[in-house]
Amino acid sequence: MQDAHIGSGSLEHLAGAIEKLGARDAFLVTGRKSFEDCGAEAALARLLKPCRVRRFSDFRTNPDWADVERGIRRIQSDPCDVVIAVGGGSVLDMGKLINGLRDLPGDPLDYVRGVTRISEPRGPLIAIPTTAGSGSETTHFAVVYVIGEKHSLAHASLQPSLAIVDPLLTHSLPARITALGGIDALAQAVESYWSVRATDESKSLAREAMRAIVKHLKPAVHAPTPRDRDAMSWAACLAGKAIDITTTTACHALSYVMTARWGVPHGQAVAVTLPEMFVFNSRTTDEDVLDARGAQYVARTIAQLNSILGCRDATESSRFIRALVGSVGLETRLDALVVEDDDAIERIAKGVNTQRLANNPRRLTTGAIQELLKSIDASTIPKDPASRGPEPWKTRLCEA
Questions:
Q1: Who's near 282: CB < 8 A, 6+ residues apart?
Q2: Mean pLDDT of the chain, nearest integer
Q3: Nearest 5°: CA angle at 356, between 336 and 317?
Q4: DSSP sequence for 108-157
Q5: Angstrom distance (rounded) from CA 17 to CA 21
Q6: Domains of the chain
Q7: DSSP string, 199-239
Q8: Rounded distance, CA 377 to CA 320, Å?
Q9: pTM
Q10: Phi and psi dihedrals of 28, rounded to 5?
Q11: What pLDDT, in 10s, does the model give residues 220-249?
């Protein structure tokens, strides 16, 4: 079970954790400028004094396989006792990938592509988020892009052995990064709640996360207080724990190609489809339900989500989420994100991540995806994208 220290000032626990591990050599994976700006650089210089520290920060914003390989080669050439990842979701994923793949036999890329399975635990990994959004510090999977294609590697050994969630590290975050992270956490919580893998535990975690985000996201973006920062860090951690149980669903499935092809930030990419997906999933029937608990169960789940958001029905929830996304300065129109590409909708539909799509409570055909994407820029809540009649399922569903 993962250990965690959560709350303002919890970074001070790092020195004790290092001492407990008996670590003398640390491999530090960080962002670049953000590592200094948030105060982590100065704090870790003090807390890691007993250790020899090598820092790795030479990688792109979204984890790319070439960067992961470089990190693996570096750590293999100079082994360490502990890996410490400090940063946003991409940095934490990079740390998880480097630590998880560094000592495995064969080609590391085979594990990412699923040719070979991870079968043994890795060395200790300490994850310290400096944003409130990804929840990567709590999960057992990591995202990496291989030649522009998104892969998600999942294994228990990827989950950090210790998470230190100190909201003080988020106090310097710009408004836009706060918004992107907060909306990502909201999408994770919502998607976890309606996922076909949802459990009572994951729903409880997601419910608490949603309530905190709805209350604290806007002030955290526009006029943050320490209380708002604390709440958003806590909510992101809860949402991460929820998706660690369930994984994400359709909004995330559609988001990855937007990030890979057009460079749309991840939080923005999931935000643009979340409102319409609310309405789509509310219309689940016995013919298109993917959740083994049935269409009536899905209907009750959506009704519960409406209540959590303080809305009467899915249409009102859709409008509420769209308004929240806009109120924190993020885009609500798809055409503003995938500009100058007449084939954008077709490309997104064809590039959808089928593993995540299989977790959605309602089946999405290729045609339904295209209709849903077209409806995002409509001024009113769209008609049911599946109302034109069934279309053959063109994409193979497989378990995540």
A1: 299, 302, 313, 314
A2: 91
A3: 55
A4: HHHHHTTSS---S----EEEEESSSS--GGG-SEEEEEETTEEEEEE-GG
A5: 6
A6: 3-170 (3.40.50.1970), 176-375 (1.20.1090.10)
A7: -HHHHHHHHHHHHHHHHHHHHHHHS--HHHHHHHHHHHHHH
A8: 16
A9: 0.91
A10: -105, 115
A11: 999 999 999 999 999 999 999 999 999 999
